[in-house]
């Protein structure tokens, strides 16, 4: 497998410097790439590293750097070009030969589009509609009345509850669970009475959802995930959450019920959102921050404390518990000093 | 589908004001409900919103509010009444027609109760006992000697390890794993020697467990989950943890080994409990707090810092690392001021 | 089932005090063990508890304690001895009788070693190689070209993506997902362009991975998990992370892309590592700490604040947001006091 550099330049829309017939067999980082590999330099300020790279070709931003490498493709955005080139090098697995594996259990009422692939041990329940070109991974479960758009791909062991609706060109990784009951209970005499979760989940187009992530169904109305949203692994999205288009959510994030995330937000790993709050468009939350109030202004937000050696941290944490007392000492000092200054 | 208001009033035990024959087709929030829908007002202080709601009927606490809506049912606890009404409106899916799907692999020694439903691609291992009316979702795995009470429901792709015992009327969502090995290793010359986990997991009645939550088996004795416990998605409960009756644990919580949570506790999303600690009954932990010591007194507990803009947070976090120095400066000032005051 | 004490003494390599024929039927904690059970005392300073234990035999460190118990085995490291003894008492389940269950779907090109057990509803894809003595749990999925060493055990419902390579004597618990796409996207005009993840995952020997943990494939090169690494439940390990030999990672930890964890590190529950950082060997991170920078020196590191009652915490957290102002007050006071002292 491989491509001549001219083919890659055409795919990424860049200007080729060097040998158009140079064969690229795969991709590599600047540090580890060999003469068969294509690499990229995202930040032109770091061009000094080019000299020591063995890469056969490099995606560059600055034409002035082309002499530092064997072959180059100059593009406005090398990182984006690298993303586009990466698609060429996806290893084509053979998949399960039969488009519909005979071990899959598919209810008679299911509507399958053209070219749908269903791997072994899949279950597809009554009245589900699977769009053209969808791929359903081994062991996945699709509930009743689920709707999948076109070219959506479920990896192995994905679970979609009844009535979940998903757009086109989505990728759901293994262990994803969409549409489980939201966590809703009314307290009654020391026990919890279940609030049956009657809504479902609607997911837009071009959404990618990472392994073992869970998105609950709505209590009354639906949980909503916009177009182009990217969600990493082990993320919890509670009932009636709304995620705006093109927002990205990193691993281990939890978003509590009925909260709204705007468009083009980013939420870094391990962060948490309380319920019933709203983030404006273009809000960015740093790792492991807890957001307990709505954020109406675009920008970056954080909580937490900095990492420190445990003995030093222990002292700071103990002192922090007495910060009110520190403030009182300061107030008292200020009064005393003011008295002294007045006297003086 | 739908119910006359009189039927709903009977189910929730409330007093009907309006047309007993009024047909309710579904539930809706006050904000979005239409004339076919039933809504509720939990907090009577917010009764001003009733005037603008289109809801066909509303569950209310105060009889004085009935004139503000088309039809009303007055009950002592509208939120609880809404929970009870929600059960009426659960969409009845047809399920897999055969009570035991022929693709399910069920060991000859398994004891199945009356009316058990087993969906496709299920595996039930030797000597398991499945109580009357249980529903086993597609792709689920039940290990050897597992015992399920009556009317317990496993969604698709649930995993129960050998010897796990579960009560009646439980709901386990997809991706739940009960009884995997606890995380126990003895260090030996820079390597880890496995402590084989010989206990199992016992779970009471009326327990609901959210998607992709994990509860490990005990090292020697069993991990214990009380009656009426509600656990959200992506929660980790380690070996030999004990959760008291009717406690509720929100998403992304982690509870380390051998810790004990009392009855009627609540643990909010993303919180963590260290191992070998005990929480008294009625302890409440706020979101993303870390509990590192036993809490003997009922009440609410927290850790962490408030969300702030990242630049401001960065300054505070840097200053916090030097809080010991601040305290030293204050002490020094106090001595100096005392000297000045004494002199003065 | 049971073993005479002499057999256990031989397995753990200790000196027996008491009756060599004494039959031990199972293990128990000092607190709960009965006369049929073996227990252990890890910390000799706590030997006062021995008098009240009913245990039939106890693993001890100090020979001077043997008179406090019915029977004893004296060993240098009782906790390690207990780990070794625990293997004797693992309950042998019968497993699925056929070594390869007929419901498993195994591609013709798969190479199965000697004595491989494949449970029901498993899918094994083309060109996978399964080493001697491996056990593949029900409902598990093995992708194309996956390689498993010898005696590796997958519990039920494990997912291995294409090309993942795993060593010998590993244990992967249910819901584990290895090799899902890393979270890599290039921003372009407000949308995200997928960077296809072309690497895979390599895992060493003697690795144990807890339930519902996810390890993503590398973007270009492979994600690497060393020998003897132990990972608990619900852990997220992102693309191109490297975990050094014999490091242990507790539940709910998240490690962001391209970070490197040294050998013999421990990361406690709920902690997070930012991307592109490096932890030296023998670094220990306490629970729920966030590591945002490389740590070059062995030792223990922490972040976060101590648990407190919520009302007190609320005051401290509010004050902490104004810590910069406190520092300014202190500076002002110092200047004023210096003026007064100079004058004085």
TrEMBL record, chains A, B, C:
Enzyme class: transferase
Sorted UniProt keywords: Acyltransferase, Lipid A biosynthesis, Lipid biosynthesis, Lipid metabolism, Repeat, Transferase
Superkingdom in the source lineage: Bacteria
Catalysis: reaction(s): a UDP-3-O-[(3R)-3-hydroxyacyl]-alpha-D-glucosamine + a (3R)-hydroxyacyl-[ACP] = a UDP-2-N,3-O-bis[(3R)-3-hydroxyacyl]-alpha-D-glucosamine + holo-[ACP] + H(+)
GO molecular function, one term: UDP-3-O-[(3R)-3-hydroxyacyl]-glucosamine N-acyltransferase activity
CDD domains noted in UniProt: LbH_LpxD
InterPro entries linked to this entry: Hexapep, Hexapep_transf_CS, LpxD, Trimer_LpxA-like_sf, UDP_GlcNAc_AcTrfase_non-rep
Subunit annotation: Homotrimer.
Protein known as: UDP-3-O-acylglucosamine N-acyltransferase
């Amino acid at each position: 497998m491989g491509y001549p550099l001219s083919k890659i330049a055409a795919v990424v829309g860049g200007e080729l410097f060097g040998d158009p017939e140079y064969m690229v067999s795969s991709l590599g980082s600047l540090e580890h790439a060999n003469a068969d590999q294509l690499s990229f330099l995202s930040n032109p300020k770091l061009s000094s590293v080019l000299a020591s790279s063995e890469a056969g070709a490099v995606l560059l931003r600055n034409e002035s750097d082309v002499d530092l490498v064997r072959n180059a493709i100059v593009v406005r955005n090398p990182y984006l070009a690298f993303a586009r080139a990466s698609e060429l090098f996806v290893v084509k697995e053979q998949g399960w030969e039969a488009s519909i594996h005979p071990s899959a259990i598919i209810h008679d009422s299911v509507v399958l589009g053209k070219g749908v692939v269903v791997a072994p041990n899949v279950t597809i329940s009554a009245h589900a509609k699977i769009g053209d070109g969808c791929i359903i991974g081994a062991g996945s479960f699709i509930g009743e009345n689920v709707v999948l758009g076109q070219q959506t791909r479920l990896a192995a062991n994905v679970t979609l509850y009844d009535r979940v609706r998903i757009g086109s060109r989505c990728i759901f990784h293994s262990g994803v669970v969409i549409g489980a009951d939201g966590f809703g209970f009314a307290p009654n005499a020391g026990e919890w009475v279940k609030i049956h979760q009657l809504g479902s989940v609607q997911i837009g187009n071009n959404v990618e959802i990472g392994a073992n992530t869970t998105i609950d169904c709505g209590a009354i109305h639906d949980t909503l995930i916009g177009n182009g949203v990217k969600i990493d692994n082990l993320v919890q999205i509670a009932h009636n959450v709304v995620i705006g288009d093109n927002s990205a959510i990193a691993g281990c994030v939890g978003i509590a019920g009925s909260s709204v995330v705007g468009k083009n937000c980013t939420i870094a790993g391990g962060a948490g959102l309380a319920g019933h709050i709203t983030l404006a468009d273009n809000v960015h939350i740093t790792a492991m921050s807890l957001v307990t109030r709505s954020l109406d202004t675009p920008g970056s937000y954080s909580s937490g404390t900095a990492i420190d050696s445990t003995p030093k941290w222990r002292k700071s944490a103990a002192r922090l518990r007495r910060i009110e007392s520190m403030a009182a000492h300061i107030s008292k000092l200020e009064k005393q000093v003011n008295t002294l200054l007045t006297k003086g």
